[in-house]
Amino acid sequence: MSKSQPLNTLARDEELDTLDPLRHLMQQSSPSSSPSSSSSSSDLNLNTQDPSPSNRKAFLSLLPNQSRSIHDETLHLTFPSPSQALPISISLAVDASPGCGGIAWPAGQVLSSYLVKKGPSFLSNKTVLELGSGTGLVGLVAAKLGANPLLGIMRANVLANSLQASVHVAELNWGTPLPPTLPPTPDIILAADCVYFEPAFPLLVQTLADLVAVREDTEVLFCYKKRRKADKRFFVLLKKKFTWTEVTDDPDREVYAREAISLLRLIKRKPLAASSNHMEEAGRRTTV
């Protein structure tokens, strides 16, 4: 095999992604799960306390298959809460006709489940921004836990869950200046399944950097499912602005890690100039 062959394969892969950004995402669907008919509903219970193989399989099949033709379907998702008597229930409208943003993806459910396990105290009285929200699943769960999230799409899901009093819906185009309608200093930024279209990689990184530029302590939770080798290029770009660590306090981590899903905490890099000045100043103080 020549050295150029992998590069040619990658280039062809990227060309196909440009033509059809959904193709890698749709390949993750389970052929054994058939989509429901239009205007129907599906019920899911994401209880992962039972470590049995059957329950593990149910957890890894986080969502029913949502085909490209799915239209105006409602999913009913239930997240058991260890800190509350009643589970967190979400009604989620999905529709593939606008593109991949109208479908719910596994990383979004993993991040939602993690927030529920952390409990209301983790998000209470905090401003939460969900970036690339799509159906708004993660932000809706955050709102149910008492946060004040910002969602990017699917006002219908806000209304369906009676969260219009605490949820503000706005459009944010990655890579463009932040609009004045955004909260200036979000406490927590949530992002799930945002890595799928390579031309958008630098735009997503820039927006993440802009959002954390104002304050040092903004927490960024980033849930990602690895689908292809080209995704590494996103992390090459991300490394210029952030460092990251894996979230290790999720009891389901080993389960979803087998499905190539990672939950990361991003940390803003300090400017090199500031770090150098700090080191020089420390050196001067030491030698005096």
From TrEMBL:
Its EC number is 2.1.1.-. Coiled coil: none annotated. Residues 1-58 are annotated as: Disordered. It comes from the Eukaryota. It is found in: Cytoplasm. Keywords: Cytoplasm, Methyltransferase, S-adenosyl-L-methionine, Transferase. Residues 43-55 have a biased composition (Polar residues). Residues 29-42 have a biased composition (Low complexity). Gene3D superfamilies: Vaccinia Virus protein VP39. One of its GO terms (biological process) is methylation. Its main location: cytoplasm. InterPro entries: EFM6, Methyltransf_16, SAM-dependent_MTases_sf. GO terms for molecular function: protein-lysine N-methyltransferase activity. PANTHER family: HEPATOCELLULAR CARCINOMA-ASSOCIATED ANTIGEN, PROTEIN-LYSINE METHYLTRANSFERASE C42C1.13. Belongs to the class I-like SAM-binding methyltransferase superfamily. METTL21 family. EFM6 subfamily. S-adenosyl-L-methionine-dependent protein-lysine N-methyltransferase that methylates elongation factor 1-alpha. This is Protein-lysine N-methyltransferase EFM6. It comes from Hypsizygus marmoreus (White beech mushroom). The gene is EFM6.
